[in-house]
């Protein structure tokens, strides 16, 4: 019983560690556009997001129940299986954070759980209908719905604000953007913090601490909320840079439209119990807002890398989770070996990240961490070439050449009193 209690404690601590990585990995979802448009200072933004994530964790348990009761068969699941699942999820979160890609922490967690469960109990232990209806279909629909909504909202914002005073309208949109960013943070707490609650509850059921089909205990809700809030406050600055500047350049009107659209999708999904990826929703809304402004474009080179990461998240985390479960099957030594591997890998990734530091002081820089500006890409360049600028906007490098009247000769001498000399 002592050994079992120890492994259960390890699972709970590892789950909270995942929740922490989820927080700093997904800070960009709530605050990247707010920071990039200058509506809030970086440190103020992440502090506000952290507080609202904590509040959001107490608003619902529907998503937690989806994971703890619906995705896999509770019977026969050992605490070691959940530990292996968390190893896969944490490592994927850290790797994608290192390269600055906004991938889904939710799918990393579910991928690790699916892989570890299959390795332990076989394919039959995974509920395929729940996986399809509450995980895969929302993953496809969320960025599309949020993107279309943000694009339409952006166009509506510019149409309605066409006759408004420029500075006053911009100030109003910044205030609205702060409010909508707070709503996204609240929504993130109601959705993502619950995933860790669900995992811990599943571990408690597997350990016989709580009865099957139980809701998360209060201490689980509180600890999960605090862990994700702390991670959010530290800020995933690399991903904030990608989301705020790497996908598109946003103005306050676009930031407001993107945040409002994403928050609406996330809150609706939480209410329905869909284990939605907030990353997918916010990324889709940012791209939609970028396309919604006349003359606005999306950097498809960055978007393509992001899409690839989305597609790899479930299978990659599942593979690592399955391998970790295989090693934990050896016994206590195997579990200890996996724990050491997780700690060593996390430390190595952190050390690598220190070579090129991204923090609140340089997160809004136009360049990447290597100091170079990312090329716009073929699609973006083509769209920019044929799209007229917004009314009243003058291109920075635009010059006009007016031919001299017939019968004149021009001179290139800068000391000449005029640009043309009459014959």
Walk me through the structure.
The structure is a single chain. This protein is mostly helical and 423 residues long. The chain has one domain (2-375). 69% of the residues lie in helices and 1% in strands. It has 14 helices and two strands; from the N terminus they run ααααααααααααααββ. The protein has helices spanning 2-36, 42-56, 62-70, 79-98, 105-121, 128-160, 166-206, 218-234, 237-246, 252-272, 278-292, 300-328, 332-353, 378-386, and strands at 408-410, 420-422. Strands 1-2 form a two-stranded antiparallel ribbon. The longest helix has 41 residues, at 166-206. The model is unreliable at 366-404 and 408-423 (pLDDT under 50).
In short:
The protein is mainly α and about 425 residues long. The chain has helices spanning about 1-35, 40-55, 60-70, 80-100, 105-120, 130-160, 165-205, 220-235, 235-245, 250-270, 280-290, 300-330, 330-355, 380-385; strands at about 410, 420.
Question: Could you outline the blueprint of secondary structure elements for this entry?
Answer:
Blueprint: H1 2-36, H2 42-56, H3 62-70, H4 79-98, H5 105-121, H6 128-160, H7 166-206, H8 218-234, H9 237-246, H10 252-272, H11 278-292, H12 300-328, H13 332-353, H14 378-386, E1 408-410, E2 420-422
Helix pairs in contact: 1-2, 1-4, 1-7, 1-8, 1-9, 1-11, 2-7, 2-8, 3-7, 4-5, 4-12, 4-13, 5-12, 6-10, 6-11, 7-8, 7-10, 10-11
